[in-house]
Amino acid sequence: MGTIVFFGDSLTAGYGLKDPLKESLPARIGQILMSEGMDYHVINAGISGDTSVSGLNRLPDTLKIDTDIFVLELGANDLLRGHPAALVSHNLQKIISAVKATHPAADILILGMKLPFWIPDERAPGYRRIYQDLAVQNHCELVPYLLDGIEGRKHLNMYDGVHPLAEGYKIMADTVWPTLKKMIKDRT
Predict the structure, then answer these.
(1) 103 vs 98: CA distance, rounded Å
(2) Looking at domain 2-187, what is its CATH homologous superfamily?
(3) Taking a C-beta distance cutoff of 8 angstroms, is the pair 108, 45 a contact?
(4) What pLDDT was estimated at residue 173?
(5) Distance CA 134, CA 92 (A)
(6) Which GO terms describe its biological process (predicted)?
């Protein structure tokens, strides 16, 4: 049995869902894996509110888990808190490097984010390419935009317009699954 660790913030943890154990992104991926007959255990290591700094600080405990695929989803809260893109990129690189050092056989999937449509480029310089650049530099797989098809659609998001409802997480899982499935197939 393999292990997939989802390491992220509220979008991984399943903030605001009635049943994160069944409706969060890691839970939905676990359900897909089971339906496909793939023998993987999925761990939800998401903490709401995490930034790249707090994620880096709690990483050592997560690295104790024997990991085959590490899914990294952090950075959105950094943007909302005004952290510079260079700091976010630096912290995410340190996370990737630590995963590679601790679990050299593990594959890494980066779940990218985009600037919300209401934030102009001038307000957050450098954020547009963080995830793409990290994926290329580290030979990681990338889902360019985790909220593709969800952002801005009221019926798929909570009242805050940021966190998906259960139906939004279904779309999110459908967005992530093709890349993750390819990674699993490539491991066999």
Answers:
(1) 8
(2) SGNH hydrolase (3.40.50.1110)
(3) no
(4) 98
(5) 8
(6) lipid metabolic process
Phi, psi of 63 (to 5 degrees): -70, -10
DSSP string over 100-134: HHH-TT-EEEEE-----TTS-GGGSTTGGGHHHHH
At residue 115, the pLDDT reads 73
Residues of the chain with pLDDT under 50: none
CA-CA distance, 158 to 108, in Å (whole number)? 29
Instruction: For 52-73, write each residue's pLDDT tens digit.
Output: 999 999 999 999 999 999 999 9
Read off the pTM.
0.95
Q: Does 39 qualify as catalytic in the annotation?
A: no
Selected catalytic residue, list 9, 10, 50, 83: 10
pLDDT of residue 117: 66
Of 39, 61, 160, 186, the catalytic one is 160
From the list 9, 50, 107, 163, the catalytic residue is 163
> What's the pLDDT at 61?
97
Residues whose CB is less than 8 angstroms from the CB of residue 19 and which lie 6 or more positions away in sequence, other chains included: none
Would you state the torsion angle of the CA atoms of residues 29, 16, 77, 141, taken in this order, to the nearest 10 degrees? 10
Phi, psi angle pair for 72, to nearest 5°: -105, 120
Residue 160 among the catalytic residues: yes
The stretches of 63-162 forming alpha helices (DSSP H) are 76-80, 85-102, 130-138
Q: How far from the centroid of its chain's Cα atoms is residue 104's Cα?
A: 20
At residue 104, the pLDDT reads 98
